[in-house]
Amino acid sequence: QVQLVESGGGLVQPGGSLTLSCTTSISIAAQVTYSRLDMSWYRQVPGNQRELVARVFSDGKTDYADSVMGRFTISRDNANNTLTLQMNSLKPEDTAVYYCHTVWSRTYWGQGAQVTVSS
Question: Quick count: other Cβ atoms within 10 Å of Cβ 72?
Fold first, then answer.
């Protein structure tokens, strides 16, 4: 009923920037509009649990993990059902698969986008 598709991952040098996007498709059966969804970015390194990176609520308020505060910016475009994560001053420890996430009756995940920070 809700489909999330990430794009924009890749390889970047330390100190560089990268932008991730997540496009959301919602079926009529879901009976919800994108603007009502709280949206999040998570990331996962092999062998570790998936961790919350940032989230933006339906009212526009945002929340960030301490490790990315001041470097990452999450934003949403309700007109185009798009979630964005602007990542600046990237560090090697930011290397992970990044997932778009929301909850509406059940949990939904995107397929993931690989971000590699390496020289």
Answer: 21
Query: CA neighbours within 13 Å on the CB side: how many for 31?
Result: 2
Strand, coil or helix: what is 49? Answer: coil
Helix extents (H) in the chain: none
Tens-digit pLDDT profile for residues 14-63? 999 999 999 999 988 888 899 999 999 999 999 999 999 999 999 999 99
Mean pLDDT in residue range 65-72:
98
> What is the distance between the terminal CA atoms of the chain, rounded to a whole angstrom?
40
How many whole angstroms separate alpha carbon 110 and alpha carbon 83? Answer: 12
Structure tokens at 17: 């920037």
